[in-house]
Every structure is written in C-alpha cells, then in structure tokens.
Amino acid sequence: MFNHLLSLLIWLPIVGAVPVLLAGSGRPNTARWISLLMAILTFAVSLFLIPQYHPDVAGMQLVESHLWIESLNVHYGLGVDGISVALILLTTFVGILVIVGAWEVIQDKPHQYMAAMLVLEGLMIGVFCATDALLFYVFFEAMLIPMFILIGIWGGPRRVYATLKFFIYTFFGSIFMLVGLIYLYLKAGTFDLHTLTTLPLSMQEQSWLFFAFLLAFAVKVPMVPVHTWLPDAHVEAPTGGSVVLAAVMLKIGGYGFLRFSLPIVPDASHHFAWVVILLSLIAVVYIGYVALVQEDMKKLVAYSSVAHMGFVTLGVFIAFMLVREQGNTDAARLGLQGAMVQMISHGFVSGAMFSCIGVLYDRLHTRLIKDYGGVINVMPWFGFFYVFFAMANCGLPGTSGFVGEFMVILSSFSANPWIALFAAFTLIIGAAYTLYLVKRVLWGEVTNPHVAEMTDINGREWFVLGAFAVAVLVLGVWPEPLTHLMDTSVNQLVQVLAIHKV
Amino acid sequence: MPTINDILIMLPEFFLVTAACILLLADAFMKPAERVYLHWLSIGVLVVTGYLVLRFQPGTVTAFNGMFIRDGLSTILKLFALLSTILVFIYGRPYMRDRQLYVGEFYTLMIFAVIGVMLLVSAGNLVMVYLGLELLTLSSYALVALNRDSSLSSEAAIKYFVLGALSSGMLLYGMSMVYGATGTLDLMQLHTAAPHSAMPHLLVFGLVFMVIGVAFKLGVAPFHMWIPDVYEGSPTAVTAFIGSASKLAAFGMAFRLLATGMGDFAQHWQIMLAALAVLSLAIGNVVAIVQSNLKRLLAYSTISHMGYLLLGLVNAGPEGYSAAMFYAVSYALMSTAAFGVILALSRAGFECENIDDFKGLNQRAPWMAFLMMLALFSLAGVPPMFGFFAKLLVLQAAIHANMLWLAIVGAVFAIIGLYYYLRVVKVMYFDKPEAGTEVRLQPDFTLRVALSLNALVLLALGLYWGPLLSWCKQAFVG
C-alpha cells in the first residue's frame, strides 16, 4: 500500500515549482501551463484522501513518521484527521483557482508568481499535515517567505510597507510560540504533538504557554487587536495573494488553536476562554462597524474577514464553557463543528469575494467603491455572481455562510444567551456592510464613463467564480458530508477538552 | 622529547606550515601571469590539509606534553575553517585581480592565518592559545591593510591593530593572574587545580580579563568597536575570511579557555557571557537597522550573531557547547555566502557594497538575487533555512540552563533583526533598478558554481541537519 500520500501532497507543488521557474520569463505560457498542471495534479492527489480517510475512525490517519533529527528526537511526522482533510481539500481547490485567476492578469515575471504560489500551496498543506510541533513550526514560518514575495513584487502602491508589516507581525507572534515549544520539548523530550497533549503541566506553565500560543495564532487569525496587518496586506496584495491569504492562511490560525491551545493547555484555555470570547465578540461587532465605513472594496472584505473569523475563535472557545461548566458536550461539539464549517465556508466566500474584486480591478484599476456604480448594467453575469457571494457573506440560508454562523450562535446560546445575542449582531451588521457594498458597486446609474466600457466576465473568470459558487451552494444546502468528515475528530477533541491536566 | 607520535598528531599543521613556506618561495619565482597556479596550489594544499585532519579523526589525543589537543571539536572547527578559506579563495580571486591585489601575499598570509586558527582551536595550554591567536591576528592585520592605497583600508587596519593589541594585552594579563593563582599553564591541569586554588579571588579576577579577551575576538558588545570599521574597510575577500574562519577560531578559543580551562568556574563566566549576549543582541540588531552599507550591516549582524552564539555557551554543558559550535559553523557558511554574492557583483572600480547597489537585482540577475535571499533568510533565522535551526538550538540551550529570560530576549531581538535582512530582500526584489547603473556578474565559472553550492547548502542543511548536529554533539561526549 502506498503510504506517502501526504508527503506527495506537500512536495508535489513545491518540487513542481522548479520546472515553472526554469521555464523562465522567456516562455510565460509554458510556465503557466506547467503550474496549472501541477495545481490540478495536487488537487487530484488530494481527492484520494476521501476514499483513503476513514471518517469513523478517531485519531490521526495516513500517518508517516521518519526520524528527522535523531539527536533531538524530531520526527518528520505527518498525519491527518477530519479537520485537516477538510482544510487540505480547501487548499488544493483554491490552489487551482488562484493559478487560473492569475493567468493573464500577472504579466510581470509570471513564472516567479506561479512558482511562489505553488511553493506556498505545498507549505500550507504541510502545516495541516504536520504532527510534529517543530515540523509544524517550520511550515508555519516558511509559508511567510513566498507570501512576502507575492505581496512585495506584485502588490499595489504601498506593497512594501504592507508586506514588511505582514512578515514582521507574523514572525513576532510565532517566535514566542517557538520559545514555548522549546520549553515543552525540554519537558517532554519530544516535539510529537500527541505526546505533548498528554504531558501534565502546572497551571502557571499552562498560562504562559497559552499566551505564547495565543499570540502566534491570534496574529494569524487575526483577532482584535492584532488584526491591523490584514487590511494592509489584503489591500496591497495581488488578487491571488488576497485569495490565498483569506481563504487558507487565516484558517491556519484557527487550526493552530485546535491543534495546540486546546489539547496542550486545556486548563489555561478554559481559564482564559473569556479573553478570547470577548475579543471574538469585539471582532464580530466592532469590526463589523469598521467594515461599514470602508471606501476600499478590498479593505471592506478584509474587515469582514476579521469579523467572520471572530466566529471561528468564538466557536472554539465557547466549547470550554460548555464542557467544563455545564457538561454539555453536544453543544460544545456543535460549536466546534460550527467553527470548522465557518472556516471552510469563509475560505470559499472570501476567496470568491476577492476574486470578484480582482475582476473589477483588472478592468478599472481602482478598488475605490465610489469609482463604480451601475456595474450590473454592463456586466450582468458578474453581477449575478457578486450578489450571490454577497449573500453568502451575509450568511443567507442556503449558502455556506449560514451554516457555520448558525451552529456557533446556537451553541453559544446554550452557554450564555448574552454571548449569542452579540454574536447574532453579525446577521444585521454583516448584511448591512455587504449589501451597502453591493448597492454602491452594482446598482444605480452608470456615473463613471469608464464603467460603461467594462466588458462582462470571460470564460476564465466564469470558471473561477463558477467553481467558488458551486462550492458555496453545495456546502450551504448539504453540509452533511463535511460535518460527517469532521465529526469523529471533533468528538475526540471535545473529550480532550474535558480532561484536566492539573 | 618530541616523539614521532607527537609529530604525527600534528601532521596537518606541519604539512600546512611547510606548504605555506614553499608557496611563499614559489611565489617569488612566479610571473604575474602564472599566479593562477598559486591560486590552485593554495586550494590544493588546503584540501590536502583537510584530508589529513579527517584521516586521524576519532578520539582525543594530546601531543607535546599537552600543548596540543586533537579532538572532535578541533577536527570540526579546522575542517570548516579550511572549507571557508577555500571558498574565500574562490570568491575572492576575481575581486582581488580587479583591484591589483591578486598577489602572493594574499595567499600566504591567509594560509598563515589558517595555521593560527588550527593551532588556536587545538591549544592545550595558555601559551599555545596566545601563540595561535597572535599568528591569526597578525596575519589578519596585514590582510586588512592589503589594499594600502585605500585610506579606509589603512584606517581599518590601524584600528584593528590597536584594539587587537589591547585585547591581547588584557588576555595576557588575565592569563598571568590565572597562572599566579594556580601555578600551571596547562588547560587540563588548570581545570583540576583551579577549584583548589588558594587565591580564588585572583582567579576570578583573571577570568574576567580572559573573558574580555575572548569577547574582543568574538566581537561581542561592548568589545565590538573594531568590527564595523574592519568589515567595511577591508578588501571584501578578507572580510569574508574574518567573518567565517576567524569566528570559528574565536569560538574554539572561548571553549578552550572557559570550558576546558575554567569549567568549574562556570557560574562566574555564565553570568558575564549572559550580559555580553544581551548587549550584543541589542547593539548588533538595533544599530544594523540604520546602516546603508551592506558590509557594515553584515558587521552589525555579526555582532548579534555572536550574541546568539553566547546563548549556547552560557549553557555550560555539552548540549550548549554543541549548540554553540553548530551556530559557529552555520554562521561561517552563511557569511561566506553573503559576502560571496557581494564579491561576485563587484567589479573593477565598483564595490557592490551599498544596499542601494542591490536595487532591482531580481530583474537583472535573478539567480544571484535568489542566492542572496537564501543567505539573508538564513541569517535572519527563518525556517526552513539552516540559520533557523542554529537559533533553535541555542535558544533551547539557554532555556535548558534555566535562563528562559535570556531565550526570550534572544527571540525578541530576532524579530528586530528580521527587519534589516528583509530590507535587503525588499531592495533586491521589490525595487526597480536605478537607471544608469548596471549589474555585471564576475564571469568566473568556479565562483558561480561554488557560490551556488554554498547558498543551496544553507537550504539543504536546513532540511537535513541531523548528521551535522550529531557530529557536533559527539565532539563533546566524554
């Protein structure tokens, strides 16, 4: 039996980037086709995860473990559970769409752009597969390099500021996690995540570690008040960079909470859950208002990402209150499930929103809302997609945006109706800023003469937006396969939450 | 009486001394056009020396009544010192030729400096430490001043000489006190005699001065003043040597004096080194931010890197020593790669040393930009590069020594350090090349191959650094 499926998934795009680079700037089309081929191959390989992975079996599957550094007992350890499988599929799916989306758009050194995208994809898959904390950290940090370059070379006018801010912010968050991981390693003698989960830790140790992890993942998610890099990075990044950033990279923060904070430091996570819940509610309500007043479309969607990711952290940490204080494991499961569904759904919706903005930007080279208006008159098909994704962004039932938010609100109601009340504000604020955006961009009369010259989306754009739309719709009306995929893993996580380490 | 066995133990050193003398003579009879033979002969000599070092590897043996120690530590440091010198020869040749510095002295002085390195890291006696150190530094002074028409170069050499002489004086002063307190110069005997000394205060006093001597050689703050000027003023090939082989020697010297000699006084020097480390991390990383000259920037980066190296030494156990050695080796490889790119991009009449000279390099020489990026990310300690794992090990060593605060200081300054490396990457990748400037790569084939390998090794060792670490750890077992 071939049991290197995960390694193949990680290294195929990374190694695939080499021929793309070698194809050189002289033959941009060759580079484009090779990278598309690599992305499709990676997606095809990732589809093999579905038959290979048994959703009813708990624990890591498709495990690979090789001794990497013998004298430190560091392993090249890979494995997936339901949560990782879902996120890997999201990554490979988005991987194709960003390559297609950048096809003619990136004219300057397309081979380097495509290669950076492929490397990034491989590293992100690595993050979701790693079962060794050091390996996780390596992927987690290495990911910054291609993103740094993507924003810095192909970004907007303030790209240098944005990309430096992005890199240093994230590095700042994660280096303290590294110190925490070394501390854990010296205690446990291994970086293996499963062993770290069972390691007994005093409350004081747990608290320090909790904040080390919180800093790393809160920056990545991003949570208020360390979210300020995100609007800058999103605004300046090229469309593909924004899509990957919003659709996959932010999820790594949420994933980190599930993999590190919850199982390794459960007591401190419980003790400080109110901090995270409070910050999540601030994200949902306050950042929602911030989004309302944005004049730049990308900034608006970036802030809406922060608000939506607030639901993820809320769902994750509300589970503690439910399990530890009420013994209500069903509601806790619902919260975690909701957080996961929200992550996947936000991956599709935000990726689609940024792709839409990219479509507009390619035509008019502005992202300011006031430059548009009446776009629906000249681009009916585009308008169709845009409205659809906007609805998903508000959480309209029938789209994927509804499912996750609903689950999280439901479970937080069991914990504390007040939390649910504030969380539910998103339904109003989210609808407000999204519909206001649609109103100003799509509806009304064409006031800008350049808008009148815009052409509707072409086949390539149709493909990208159509693929996102199908994903959003399927997940919205039939989320059962996704929840089934993650059910056992979430159950296991809930059991871990209940175990006191002190 | 020296026996044949003593000579066999020191065979690599004897061979290199003999070869250096022959090369010196041969150079006198060579026409300038034939200098290429000298170049390859020197490299050949270093390769053979490396082979001889490797040949008699296992076990710890001493020669000449304990004057000379051959062990795992000295083997590794010698091999990497030889390797980095070979790289400097290859990278430096076109550069030196363009500046009329392609002379025999360059090769012979370098080789004598390497002999100094080899003696220093194998020293088993305080006299031997001093001898090796002086051989290395005296050759280095001359090398720094090689470009005698340049006032910058002469100024650097004078500064280096004056401060170097001062530090040697301090070191000797410390050694004399240690000798006075224990009555021995032999490091092993010192180790056993020191705890029973009748004058422990004098001993600690001497230790302070020895630490100062080591700090000068490593270039850690506040004894770092010579570093920026010497780095900037020297011919870049010499800077690359001072930044690599010389640092390995400094680590070897620190280990011999502090661990081998004064190992039982670790609680005293640990705290001194911790203070030096914090200062170096702060000064190195913060001052580097405002530099506009890349050589000067790398000089301040050296200061901070030596601070990280001290984080390993502070541990004062085999784990910490191996981490520090791993760090020294990684730093030597990273700095040769970074200086190699500067050497490859410089040409007659043009020093590619200002950060602005690297503007838009990715558009003009993408491969060079890529190699430089690998070196810079490695220096910054971003995974999966080699430099990250070196930092990981020293942070781990510091935490293991119950100095969590020191590791956190190291982590914080890694963030600040990241900024100025990123600034160079930014200039290379995100800026447009300036009109009226051009990039002309040195056409030297061996340089390109060696430089590419050097930089790619930083990535390869980042992905698979286990064997090197085991090797470093073995050196400190038993």
Could you explain the architecture of this structure?
- The complex is a heterodimer of chains A (502) and B (478).
- Chain A has 23 helices and 2 strands.
- Chain A has helices at residues 5-23, 28-47, 49-52, 82-101, 110-129, 133-142, 144-154, 159-188, 193-198, 203-220, 229-236, 239-264, 266-271, 273-292, 297-326, 329-364, 375-378, 380-394, 400-415, 417-441, 449-452, 459-477, 480-498; strands at 61-69, 74-80.
- In chain A, helix 5 (110-129) runs antiparallel to helix 6 and helix 19 (400-415) runs parallel beside helix 22.
- Helix content of chain A is 77%, strand content 3%.
- Chain A has a domain at 272-502.
- In chain A, strand 1 (61-69) and strand 2 form a beta hairpin.
- The longest helix of chain A is centred in the C-terminal third of the chain and has 36 residues, at 329-364.
- The mean pLDDT of chain A is 90.
- Chain B starts with a helix and ends with a helix.
- Chain B is built from 21 helices and 2 strands.
- Helices cover 76% and strands 1% of the residues of chain B.
- In chain B, strand 1 (61-63) and strand 2 form a beta hairpin.
- Chains A and B meet through strand 1, helix 6, helix 7 and helix 8 of A and helix 18, helix 19 and helix 21 of B.
Helix content of chain A: over 70%
Radius of gyration of chain B: 21 Å
SSE sequence of chain A, one letter per element: HHHEEHHHHHHHHHHHHHHHHHHHH
Count helical runs of chain B. Answer: 21
Q: Which assembly state applies to the chains in this document? A: heterodimer
Low-confidence stretches of chain A: none
- Parts with pLDDT < 50 across at least 5 consecutive residues of chain B: none
Largest sheet of chain B: 2 strands, antiparallel
Structural class of chain A: mainly alpha
Structural class of chain B: mainly alpha
| Euclidean distance between termini CA atoms of chain A | 42 Å
Gyration radius of chain A (Cα, Å) is 22 Å
Q: Give the N-to-C terminal Cα separation of chain B.
A: 29 Å
Mean pLDDT of chain A: 90
Number of strands of chain B: 2
